[in-house]
Amino acid sequence: MTFGFAPSAATSMPGASSPAKLPAQRSATVPAVSADSANQLARMLEPAEWAAAGIPLLRDPREVVNGLHARHLPTPDTAVVAVLDQEERLRASASFTRHATGADGWVYRNALLAQLRRVIPHDLRRRAPVRTAVLLYCREGDARWTAEDGAWMWGLRDACTLHGLRCGAYITLTRGGWQVLGEGRGGRRPHIAATSTERLLNGTGPPTATHERNGSGTAIRLRRASAW
Question: End-to-end alpha-carbon separation of the chain, Å?
Fold first, then answer.
């Protein structure tokens, strides 16, 4: 009869593991990973969602892209956020290099919001936004939408809400040219190759910060910021 209780005695021995606990331990780690992935997916906008958000169209996207490209000379993984007034004149802009390893709209939102706070006062006291923020992101690949683009769209929209701005166009700059996602408008120039060529011909290195309110200790490497 005592032999029938031997398994219970064995599991009570120091250092012994209970087989019943192992599946519970393995399954406990799965929800944490899944929840993190689900959160990142939630912080992302697909093209259909972006189009349904009522993003205002740029009257002259080519002029906006050419102006930001000439001012910041962005290289791959560089984001340029700009604020336009009601006449679509550039009022402030800042560029920075993305260092995050994954596409997370929350991280992008914080980076964009930090740059907006550096270069222009917020409009949260207004009943309705009068200025618009647009984002130019320079990356490898083609002009088709990617999960990274979706995270940038989510980040731009959220940063604009927190800074009292209208959310404007999201533009990608690749080796094939530029593209306003969600609008179908684009062009072959400027593009990434032009950026590298211009720097070699001009003998210039990466631009430096020029804004008089430049802060210190920022978590992302500043490229150039300006305001008028």
Answer: 91
